[in-house]
Structures are given as structure tokens and as C-alpha cells.
Write a structure and sequence with these properties.
Blueprint (H helix, E strand, L loop, with lengths): L1 H19 L4 E11 L2 E12 L17 E2 L2 E7 L4 E2 L10 E3 L2 E4 L5 E2 L2 E5 L2 E6 L1 H4 L10 E3 L13 E8 L12 H16 L21 E5 L5 E5 L7 E2 L7 E6 L3 E17 L5 E10 L11 E4 L3 E9 L4 E5 H8 L4
Parallel strand pairs: 2-4, 6-14, 15-20
Antiparallel strand pairs: 1-2, 1-17, 3-4, 5-20, 7-8, 7-11, 9-10, 10-13, 11-12, 12-13, 16-17, 16-19, 17-18, 18-21, 19-20, 20-21
Length: 332
């Protein structure tokens, strides 16, 4: 199978833009073809669509081809893929899997604890901890999240420490907050006669790989280094096609799933007309709902494989943990 995958991955890369441009297509990836609802052993390029439409209603240019260079395709109706946001209780210490959120959002899930330069930090999504780019460093993070009754400052457990900006379709890749800081610094440099200038550069460069952020606990004793109902994280592992996974989230609790696609590119709706395209994602079946965003996704050996951040009623979209750790510069 690895030989076949090594052939399909570059092929998908060459046709991805064309497939993502077809009507209703919201994600592409590599998975096993399904026939009459049953999974076969045949690898295929899978196109997820908001809804299936009769061929008669589609132009030839809008239809997904039956095959690409001899590799079969499969069209799967998943509904619109959206970023999960909303419930529960107040936990001290707070483990992974419980309600948390920026003071101006509804609620999401505390993923797990990580370390950066020796400091203990909370890992979750940008849209959970950083209000989808609209937060400022130092903002209050509540546990439980506001939707679950969390109040500021009574339930403040942490402050926003860092986030990876989400690049929305049609927008600049530069972070607006960083741009503002750079503008002020450049003005001061000009006044003092310095030739030094700062330029704000998005950590994610030109494409979205992660929806991730870090928060700094007010007191390390207020957080717990395990996952509610799952226990301690053993290590990290690469998410693989067919891998059994599990998560503990604020809304649906403990659920299990299987990674059905890898190398996924997906358009994710953040509300208000904002859509962001994410690359190099993992896709599992229906194992989450709104409010589970930020959940740590583990394999059967409790190795961390991803950070859950979006999905529909049919699928779950997961950031590869290798990308999350690399971009944020963190470790367990």
C-alpha cells in the first residue's frame, strides 16, 4: 500500500486545486473507495461535497471525474465543514477534554498541556483561545468557557500567550496585530533616526496547516497533565490511514473513530462569510460536534496524533500534531 500511496500523494497534489474548484467540493484527500456505503480495499482520491447533486444539474466542468490518471475517485456527501465552537463544569485542576474559551467566545475544549522553553502551557485551537484572530495577547481565558457559565475574572484560568493566525480566503497572510505592532515600532525607529524596520510575518506563511493557540495558566496547579477519561498522553505518533483514534471533548465526551483520509485539503467555514482553506489535514468519521474543537486526538496507545478543530455531521477534521508542535515550537 505504501508504494501505491507514494504514487497517489503527488498525483493528488497536482490536481488538488482543480478538484477543490468543483461545485460543492469542500475537501479532498486519499482514502478507501466506498461502494453502496461499504468500504472497499481500493485506494482512491476522495472528494467531499456539501451535498450530492444529480449529474443533470451539473456542468461537465463542475463534475468530479470518475478517475484521475487511472486512480479512481469517490464523491462523499459530508455537509459543510465548519469550525467547532460550543458545554461544562468548573475543574480545578483542569484536565484536557473540558470546557475552556476566550472570554468573548462561546466554549471549546482544552486539548492538553505542552511545554515551550520549559514553560507549561495550555494547547487548544486559535478559534477557542484567540477568538479566530480577534484576540490580543494577555486576554483572559476562562474555564469553563462563557457558554458554560464561565465568568471573567472569577473563572479566569489562563491568559492568551500565543496563536497561529488563520489566513482566510482572499485575505493577506500577515497577522493584523503583528502589523500594528510593526507599524508602531517602525514609527519610533523613524523618529529616532534608526534605519531598522520590522515586518510582520505570519507563522503559517502562505497556507493554513493548523488552527492552534497557547494559553499561560495563572497557576500551574490549576491544570492537570492528563485527558479526562483517557488518562496520560504516552507520546506522539504520526496519524495514518486506517488508524483507530479517540478523543475526549466538551460536547460529546469520549468518542472513537478511524482516520479515513490523509493529506486532506479542506475549506472550513468560520461564520460571517469567512472561509479558510487548510492543507495536510487528517479526516476521521463522525466523532465530534460543536464545542469539541481543541480536543487532543489519541491513538489506541494514548499517543497524541492530532488536534481536532473542525468537521460536519459526517466527518471530523484534525490538524496533524507534527505540524502543530513544529509551528508553535512546543513539546509534551
Amino acid at each position: 500500500m505504501e508504494t501505491i500511496l507514494s504514487t497517489i500523494i503527488p498525483l493528488l497534489g497536482s490536481v488538488r486545486s482543480s478538484l477543490m474548484g468543483r461545485k460543492n467540493v469542500v475537501a479532498t484527500g486519499i482514502g478507501y473507495k466506498k461502494t453502496a456505503g461499504e468500504k472497499t480495499g481500493q485506494l482512491s482520491i476522495v472528494c467531499s461535497v456539501e451535498k450530492k447533486e444529480p449529474s443533470a444539474k451539473l456542468l461537465s466542468s463542475e463534475m468530479v471525474p470518475k478517475a484521475v490518471d487511472g486512480v479512481p475517485t469517490d464523491v462523499v456527501a459530508t455537509g459543510r465543514i465548519r469550525a467547532f465552537a460550543p458545554p461544562t463544569g468548573r475543574f480545578r485542576p483542569a484536565p484536557g477534554g473540558v470546557s475552556i474559551g476566550h472570554f468573548e467566545i462561546t466554549a471549546g475544549t482544552l486539548g492538553c498541556l505542552v511545554r515551550k522553553n520549559g514553560e507549561l502551557l495550555i494547547l487548544s485551537n486559535n478559534h477557542v483561545l484567540a477568538n479566530s484572530n480577534d484576540a490580543a495577547i494577555g486576554d483572559a481565558i476562562l474555564q469553563p468557557g462563557p457558554y458554560d457559565g464561565g465568568l471573567n475574572p472569577a473563572d479566569k484560568i489562563a491568559e492568551l500567550a500565543e496563536f497561529v493566525p488563520i489566513i482566510y480566503n482572499g485575505s493577506s497572510s500577515a497577522c493584523p496585530i503583528a502589523n500594528s505592532i510593526a507599524d508602531v515600532c517602525n514609527l519610533l525607529a523613524a523618529v529616532t533616526g534608526s534605519d531598522t524596520r520590522l515586518q510582520a510575518i505570519s507563522v503559517q506563511a502562505a497556507e493554513n496547516l493548523v488552527d492552534a493557540a497557547l494559553a499561560r495558566p495563572l497557576n500551574p496547579a490549576d491544570v492537570q497533565n492528563d485527558i479526562l477519561g483517557l488518562g496520560a498522553i504516552s507520546g506522539t505518533a504520526e496519524g495514518a490511514l486506517g488508524m483507530a483514534v479517540k478523543k475526549s471533548g466538551r460536547t460529546t465526551g469520549l468518542t472513537n473513530g478511524v482516520i479515513e483520509q490523509i493529506d486532506v485539503t479542506a475549506n472550513v467555514s468560520y461564520g460571517g462569510g469567512r472561509v479558510a482553506q487548510f492543507h495536510d489535514q487528517l479526516l476521521a468519521g463522525a466523532m465530534s460536534q460543536g464545542g469539541d474543537s481543541g480536543s487532543a486526538v489519541l491513538d489506541t496507545s494514548n499517543n497524541l496524533v492530532g488536534l481536532l478543530f473542525a468537521g460536519s455531521d459526517e466527518v471530523t477534521i484534525i490538524n496533524r500534531i507534527q505540524n502543530v508542535f513544529s509551528i508553535l515550537g512546543v513539546s509534551l
